[in-house]
Structure of Aminopeptidase N:
Amino acid sequence: MTRCTRRALIRGAALGPLAATAADRLSQPAAERYFPGHGSYGHHTTSYELRLAYDPAAGVLEGRALIRAVAARPLREVELDLARLTVRGARVDGIGVRARTRRSKLLLPTPHPFAAGAPFTLDIAYGGRPGPVRSPFGAIGWDRTGDAHGGTLVAAQPLGAPSWFPCNDRPDDKAEFVFRITVPRGHHALANGTLAEHRADGATECWTYHHSGPMAPYLAALYTGRFAHDTWRARDSATGRTVTGRDAYPAHLSHHARHDLARQPAMIEAFTGWFGPYPFETYGAVVVDADLDEPVENQTLPVFGRNHIDGGRTWETLVAHELAHQWFGNSVSLRDWRDIWLNEGFATYCEWLWSEHIGEDPADAIARREWAALHSRPQNLRLGDPGRDRIFDDRVYTRGACTLHALRLTMGDERFLTLLRSWHHAHRGRSADTRAFVAHAARHAPHTTGPLLHAWLYDEPLPPLPPPSPPPGVGRT
Ligand SMILES: [Zn+2]
């Protein structure tokens, strides 16, 4: 079935373990992080404003990142992630500083010591030829589509955001974003959030987007090239308000894309009924003129490859999957990558709910099929802490979805949906971890969920699925 995320176009060589910096070793939380050298616990980001100019003919990006942040502890140096690109100049609180780089780290000295809680600003001019960065999961981040218009895309999960802007690349460092992108006349630029302004000026066009988010850096996206568009509206069942959508795709795929994406409004209507209000201001799918290994759930603006569009809705489960991530993965994001089942198990289960809702296979039938497949595989996966190199293991997706199905069968449909809705409501716009989910479930069903979740999340052998409940039905509520 699914498997969203992780690689764009180029399959890269695997890397060895990523080294931790001294600062990170001092400041990282008690639990060992999966990517200790990545991101910084020295500060929290409040906002990014990215002023970018991209020349598709040369493949050159020139940028300026205006960042607002708050020191999380006393600081003499601000640490950011940035790969492959060159810093032209940097200011901290308006004062020019000499930036240092170390591998994919950008280090900026503070003009004076910052106390914990002190707000500060960064202004970083940078540029170069962006491209994918190597990661344990292949090459990820900024990439070129290879089409005739010099199109580009971003598919950064989990470590690729530094391929196009300096950031604190942690899944739990979420911020507001503004994008101002200049491209040659006749080219489009698409980014997360809503289009605030579009100006054509001589030989260039400038596109400005605003996304209040908050959004983790790895979910930020920019697509450039030439696109046809389709706008649509969906009813939010939870609030009654209208969600506006705008899909983009290569003109030659218009017919197939319109058909394959056409049920997104119906998905939003169903998902808002099950999970609560749609969490962001807008939504839209982008299809790029390139084959992608997997779609990616970039916030408000997921990306699909042309290979995911065939005019027959063959990949509609992936359309449902990426939409579901807007609640589970994007609005409620991860505290750490060890909690990945909270993203992928949930989005996979939403595919099964959608299948049931439209009268195809019920979730119970899919769960029992997937359970049998899991049972024939090695029993060596701890879902709640799968290990760094297994965060995108297929079994995380299907065992995670089976875990939710086991909860549903144990709790009943109504209490199960209340659990999902209240989970999103409690953590909307923030990050959460597996321990918080277990505690949340225990509040809804104190005597049944603890042992059940422990077995599914922390024991390696696959637990049995509970027997099916008589009336099928979440999908039809
Ligand atoms: Zn996914």
Notes: The chain has two domains: 22-324, 336-476. The CA atoms of residues 332 and 430 lie 6 Å apart. The chain has a mean pLDDT of 92.
